[in-house]
């Protein structure tokens, strides 16, 4: 590998590709190589991403194995299906990060049930903070980052998945919550849906209005969240998951509740719950448990690679309540991808990534 790491970005005209380029442009150890897309091939990147000033003159190429060859790293920010197809044609010695869903699930049946197509296979999962209770020795909890150094393929997690998993997993790993009755309700910004035209995403439909989507257990992120919580130690996961589009460009606010586990008394659980969440994240650079009484908001994470988490015990309901905020395009996608890139290549995990939001 040359001393400067060359990174190609496929899907450069889209939201996730654009955010990846914004982060890479400021990364001290990498340079941006080819930028590719689909119908926008042949046009200048600045026509699609005018905020990326240093890259505005770049010409977008078609997404082909030839255009993506000769790079140390290839980031695929493509619709699912498209990324699996091109990934299969990329060289084994390049690090490939797939921001889409194609390689996240280990269960091919779950893939077929939720995506309705053939499974492309599973890659190492790019959520460094994921707790791996089942693989830990006595008294230790492993984390997914331990399995990312040196890998050549990374499946970057879904944005909703990131918020829900990071919010609840400490309680699952510590055996404090019952994962067989999880309820998750999310407020989601519009950029999560990508930038292609869809009637329900028109400003006239969305401004001043909030509305749910993928209601009733149909969202594709349900099996991915269950996979993560099983890794964190859950034997049975039952999840009611309801996302809601709200009129903001970026951000996810995930409110996740679960009953206290059998034998955990509501009146005395507050301290052990606080300790479990605090221990899980005290050394994490990008996942922060907020001080007691302070609640996350999406604005606090805008533009930052942070997940901000709060947790309390609702004694009357006998449930743990967690609220997590992420920027769907940063910790929910592009930032998490750069974090995984750093780990995979043995760079400092925080290179090129910030924790400061842009509120208000
Ligand atoms: N938006 C988000 O918050 C998140 C997105 N993701 C994932 O990232 C991926 C990209 O999403 P997003 O950026 O939102 O989507 P966009 O619709 O904004 O962008 C899609 C990009 O893919 C390109 N593209 C579309 N079809 C093809 C194809 N057949 N071959 C090659 N390129 C193609 C488009 O090029 P062109 O414009 O030229 O047609 C465009 O650059 C998806 O898999 C998504 O699920 C993951 C987490 C969060
Ligand atoms: C608002 C909105 O529609 N958000 C999308 C975000 C999904 C996403 O981008 O994640 P994948 O990579 O798994 O597709 C959704 O909830 O489906």
Automatic annotation (TrEMBL):
Transmembrane segments: none annotated. InterPro entries: AGPR, AGPR_AS, AGPR_dimerisation_dom, AGPR_type-1, NAD(P)-bd_dom_sf, Semialdehyde_DH_NAD-bd. The active site is at 159. Residues 6-138 form the Semialdehyde dehydrogenase NAD-binding domain. One of its GO terms (molecular function) is N-acetyl-gamma-glutamyl-phosphate reductase activity. The keyword NADP applies. Its EC number is 1.2.1.38. NCBIfam families: argC. This is N-acetyl-gamma-glutamyl-phosphate reductase. It comes from Myceligenerans salitolerans.
């Amino acid at each position: 590998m040359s001393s400067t790491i060359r990174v190609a970005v496929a899907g450069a005209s889209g939201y996730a590709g654009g955010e990846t380029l914004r982060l890479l442009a400021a990364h001290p150890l990498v340079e941006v190589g080819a930028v590719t897309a689909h119908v926008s091939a042949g046009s200048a990147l600045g026509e699609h991403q005018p905020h990326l000033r240093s890259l505005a003159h770049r010409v977008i190429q078609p997404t082909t194995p030839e255009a993506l060859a000769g790079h140390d790293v290839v980031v695929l920010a493509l619709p699912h299906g498209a990324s699996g197809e091109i990934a299969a044609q990329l060289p084994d010695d390049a690090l490939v990060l797939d921001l889409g869903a194609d390689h996240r699930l280990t269960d091919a049946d779950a893939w077929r049930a939720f995506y309705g197509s053939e499974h492309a296979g599973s890659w190492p999962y790019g959520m460094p903070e994921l707790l791996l209770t089942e693989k830990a020795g006595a008294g230790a909890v492993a984390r997914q980052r331990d399995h990312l150094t040196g890998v050549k393929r990374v499946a970057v997690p879904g944005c909703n998945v990131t918020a829900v998993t990071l919010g609840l997993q400490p309680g699952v790993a510590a055996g404090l919550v019952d994962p067989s009755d999880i309820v998750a309700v999310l407020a989601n910004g519009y950029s999560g849906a990508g930038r292609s035209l869809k009637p329900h995403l028109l400003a006239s439909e969305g401004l001043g209005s909030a509305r749910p989507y993928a209601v009733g257990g149909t969202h594709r992120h349900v099996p991915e969240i269950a996979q993560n919580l099983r890794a964190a130690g859950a034997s049975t996961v039952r999840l009611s998951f309801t996302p809601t589009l709200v009129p903001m460009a970026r951000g996810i606010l995930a409110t996740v509740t679960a009953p206290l586990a059998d034998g955990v008394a509501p009146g005395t659980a507050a301290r052990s719950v606080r300790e479990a969440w605090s221990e899980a994240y005290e050394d994490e650079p990008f996942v922060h448990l907020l001080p007691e009484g302070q609640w996350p908001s999406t604005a606090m994470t805008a533009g930052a690679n942070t997940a901000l988490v709060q947790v309390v015990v609702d004694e009357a309901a006998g449930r743990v309540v967690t609220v997590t905020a992420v920027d769907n395009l940063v910790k929910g996608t592009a930032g998490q991808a750069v974090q995984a890139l750093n780990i995979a290549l043995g760079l400092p995990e925080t290179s090129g990534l910030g924790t400061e939001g842009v509120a208000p």
